Amino acid sequence: MITSTSNPKIKNLMQLQKKGKARREQQCFVVEGIKMVLEAPEDRLKEIYMSESFSGHSEYREAVLKKAKAAGAYAEIVSDKVFRDTSDTMTPQGVMAVVASELWDWKTLVSKKTGQAKLFLILESLQDPGNLGTVIRTGEGAGIDGIILNRTTVDPYMPKVIRSTMGSAYRVPVAAADDLTEVVSEMRRQGIGVYAAHLQGSEDYCRKDYTKDTCFMIGNEASGLTDRLTEMASGYIRIPMAGQVESLNAGIAAALLMYEAKRQRNFQ
């Protein structure tokens, strides 16, 4: 049992929790909670840590140990204090794991053959971890084919993002791009309709046809999409607002757009 935060593995865990640089260099991230640990893909599961009190619950302990064995992952018990010091949550459940990250190459993602109309999101400089996590989780529900981020968008593998996805982070392809204009150019070359969610949009988002290959672009929570990216869109769309509301939360806006595309395709 590990009883000190000076232990090299615990020190590394804490770095993965707090530092994006550590996550990028090691290509790993930390998940917490029984659901997130048990849903982790076995081929990506590296290490599992259980608190001393958690390990006393035989039902959960056996499920976690079975998962570790199937994945060939390192498993260790740590003292409750060490676990609390390492955890990123206020009320830790007593189990966490190190999982290999899986960032896609955006060109591979865009060109992947699916046999049906594709649906993508481009996110430019989103800063709220909860927003990004919500988008990823909602994207799985809407059947999205992938999300492409620029480098100034919040780290998709930081703890708050991962918690907000409720497991969808394992299943929704996410890619990062140095230049989103290059992504839009390639999408349009392939015949993908790229729509900018924009306050200057003159068309109600429900009046466009999303039954063909489609991508929605969502911008920064405060400033929206940059002019350079907006100008490359196939069209500008707007979510109608009542009262004095100008726009919606980025996560909610993305959800409405993705589910409108899903609705249209369900009724083809």
Can you describe what's shown?
The protein is of the alpha/beta class and 268 residues long. 38% of the residues lie in helices and 21% in strands. It is built from eleven helices and twelve strands. The strands form two sheets. Strands 5-8-7-6-11-9-12-10 form an eight-stranded parallel beta sheet, with helices on both faces. The longest helix has 17 residues, at 250-266. The relative contact order is 0.13. The model has no long low-confidence stretch (mean pLDDT 95).
Q: How are the SSEs placed, and which strands pair?
A:
Elements: H1 8-18, H2 20-26, E1 28-32, H3 34-39, E2 45-51, H4 58-71, E3 74-78, H5 80-86, E4 95-100, E5 103-104, H6 106-111, E6 119-123, H7 129-142, E7 146-150, H8 159-165, E8 174-177, H9 180-189, E9 193-197, E10 203-204, E11 214-218, H10 227-230, E12 235-238, H11 250-266
Parallel strand pairs: 2-3, 5-8, 6-7, 6-11, 7-8, 9-11, 9-12, 10-12
Antiparallel strand pairs: 1-4, 2-4
Helix pairs in contact: 1-2, 7-8, 7-11
